[in-house]
Amino acid sequence: MAHSPWRNATTEVHAGYSPSGDHLPMTVPIYNTAAYEFPDYATAAALFSLKAPGFTYSRTGNPTVAVLEERAAALEGGVGANATATGQAAVALALLALLQGPNHLVASNKLYGGTMDLLTDTFVDFGATVSFVDPEDPANWAAAITPKTRGFLLESVSNPLATLVDLRAITAVAHAAGIPVVVDNTLPTPAAYRPIEFGADIVVHSATKALSGHGSVLGGLVIDAGTFDFSDAVRWPQIAGPKARYGGDTLLGRYGAKAYLMLGRSKFLHDLGPTLSAASASSILTGIETLSLRVAKAQSNVLELAKALEAHPAVARVHHPSIATHQDFALAKEHYPGGTGCIFSFDLKDPAWVPSLVDSLKLFALAANIGDARSLIVHPAAMTHCRLSESQLAAAGISAATLRLSVGLEDSGDLVADLLAGLDAMAPSKGAAATAVRQTVNA
Ligand SMILES: Cc1ncc(COP(=O)(O)O)c(C=O)c1O
């Protein structure tokens, strides 16, 4: 495992870059170029045959993007990373490199809706099979393994209900069966939770969310711990078997612990082209510089909001592990001491209240994103998870009365007042008078 010599807040600012070249620019330059001139023919031939490291064409690598890849790998404790145009591409590439042919994936039944679309529709069209399990009991994962299983996929904190996992127990089940575990760590980010420390083999991110942090750019990352044993050429022919594409060599023989990432870069980024631009990488790098600060502020806002919602008579249930009655309360304290990120959900007592509550809010924008500096709200059943069947929604714990919040960086008192004013219109709380007084004072 590659370790940054620093704690995360320092890594966020420094990893992967120190000023160099003629002008010593303090920030990472944006290499706005599609191609790179080769000094001579022999260098070009060596680079194109992947025998020498370097940049040939920005679809498979760019110096600005490379700094982001190194910084993300350092933050998660991986050996390297591949950046992608979106988080959706990161999830797809991470899995494509494992599921060659009619192979099988075991996946959590609590996943972002776009990932569910990928697994239940596109991957099925290409011959893969997927078994969905309730991720919270490791025995469910063990029971779903078949001889064709080539990966486990789960979210470290699930979208939208913020359910948690005992990742150490799940990775133990997977590794005993020779299966790598892919963890989508978008919600907590490495500032709060580092899946590789709990046994994850591959970490994916939508960098669109809290990593970039301002809702202004799309991006994704695949980070490899570099520790999974891909040496069985029968199970992993794409990594351990000889390939004409690599002059008859095996990726494992050529690249060792970076073989999986080279498969992603030299085959899938090259052949499919979901590449991150240098300008987007620059935005994400700027966002990452303040990641720890933003995650801590959003987390403290989340705790205030969860407490206020829990006490409100219009709310049936708050789905956040800081609530003492939540099923993951103990797990959160033990495995997620840094918090779980800026997302949580709550159920209204009556689903008919959803439209008027959403329309009444002044600070929570109705927008399908998370991890923004601004607070956002969605109705998953009608929006982000609208293509899930009734039974898939039920398995994911999402009802028609569930609303998801992505909590931003505003003042917590303002956020609580905005939500409580909307809820008081449905079912007045004891705090309604206080809210009215505050509004009068502010008027
Ligand atoms: C947990 C999670 N993973 C992946 C994605 C996909 O990322 P993107 O929208 O950047 O493609 C999302 C998007 O909401 C997400 O919430």
From TrEMBL:
Which protein family is it in?
A: Belongs to the trans-sulfuration enzymes family.
Q: Which GO terms describe its molecular function?
A: transferase activity
Q: Which species is listed as the source?
A: Paeniglutamicibacter antarcticus
Q: What is this protein called?
A: PLP-dependent transferase
Q: Name one Pfam family in it.
A: Cys_Met_Meta_PP
Q: Which UniProt keywords apply?
A: Pyridoxal phosphate, Transferase
Family matches, as Gene3D superfamilies: Aspartate Aminotransferase, domain 1, Type I PLP-dependent aspartate aminotransferase-like (Major domain)
Superkingdom per UniProt: Bacteria
What is its cofactor?
pyridoxal 5'-phosphate
